[in-house]
Amino acid sequence: MIPIAAVIGVATAVGLGAEHRWHERAEVASRRVLTTVLWGLLPVVIFFNIGTLELTARVGAGIGFAYVALAATVGAAYLVGTRILRLSRPSVGALMGAAALGNTGYLGLPFTAALLGFDELPNALAYDVLVSSFALVTVGFSLGAAFGTRGERARDRLRSFFTRNPPLWATVGGLLAPAALTPEWAVDASRVLVLVILPLGFFAVGVTLASEAGALGRFPPRLTAPVAWAVGLKLALLPALLFTLSTVLLDVPDSYVTQAGMACALNMLVIADAYGLDRALVAAAILWSTVFVVAIGLVLAVT
After folding, report:
1. 119: which residues sit within 8 A by CB, 6+ positions away?
2. Which of 31, 87, 161, 251 suits a disulfide with 137, CB 3.0-4.6 Å?
3. Which DSSP symbol is given to 149?
4. CB of 131 within 8 A of CB of 107?
């Protein structure tokens, strides 16, 4: 976990520095990096690893529990934003999205591999594709449309989820492919790409946070009450609910709990920008939740 924390720090710092020095060119490079990950690296990792996933009652229950926990967290965030903090509608929507949606790809996959081993990677991938990605285009964009000041049609985003989503089709292909197409050597080789995705993803995080410096007002941003609530709900309530359901009803894979406790999703900035939500709140929540997740991972790794 220590090498992962170091890579995250260095890659994020490189992204921050690149944006400050080259501005638009760094942002173009960041978009190309994310495109390469989405269309080139992730489908390969998913295809070869999802084929080793055992479709059991535990896996299905974990997906169901994740949605129950996500819905409860969204509801709790709404109550906090409207009744306790008395935020504006764009800030309430940002709080709800930041509390619900997690970085289960760029951070969650290498985090799971480092903490629980590569054997848990298929379960972590299933959570990333079937929970996080689907929730992004349904829950995330619905929150943007409901609480933002502008936006696009939700059905267009949902259509894109099915038509322009290589990880989704890699998941389907991996589940349907015969064992001969996913030999052990290919699975092992593809897992190296998980470690490659980490610095690429956090380079993009650094560029994005630097480009949002105007919205943040300062860097690093203050841990204000709305930001603290968003981080607390995301890192504590969501995984706690999933863990409780797993303990009381049916045990689910350990990686589902770690994925539920991942930092706030970088893609929430895309939604905030498209729909006019509170970008400063979202960007600060991403930064602080990532810091806390990495710190917790380091503690778990050395204990």
Report:
1. none
2. 161
3. S
4. no
> Domains along the chain?
2-302 (1.20.1530.20)
Residues 6+ apart with CB under 8 A from 89: 147
Upstream peptide bond of 178 is cis (omega within 30 degrees of 0):
no
Please list the pLDDT of the chain residue by residue as tens digits (303 residues). Answer: 677 778 878 888 888 888 888 888 888 888 788 778 778 887 888 788 777 777 788 888 999 999 999 999 999 999 999 999 999 999 999 999 999 999 998 788 888 888 888 889 889 988 988 898 888 878 887 888 888 876 555 566 556 666 666 777 887 888 788 877 888 888 888 878 877 877 887 787 788 777 766 555 566 778 899 999 999 999 999 999 999 999 999 999 999 999 999 999 887 877 887 788 888 898 889 889 988 998 888 787 676
Give the C-alpha separation, 124 to 221, whole Å.
30
Token pair for residue 243? 């863990």
Contact 192, 48 (CB under 8 A): no
Question: 238 with 73: CB under 8 angstroms?
Answer: yes
Angle at 154 between CA 152 and CA 155, to 5 degrees: 115
In 10 A of CB 292, how many CB atoms? 17
What DSSP character marks residue 102?
B
Are 201 and 155 in contact by the 8 Å Cβ rule? The answer is no
Q: Give just the sign of the alpha carbon dihedral 50, 200, 256, 272.
A: negative
DSSP letter (8 states) at residue 75: H
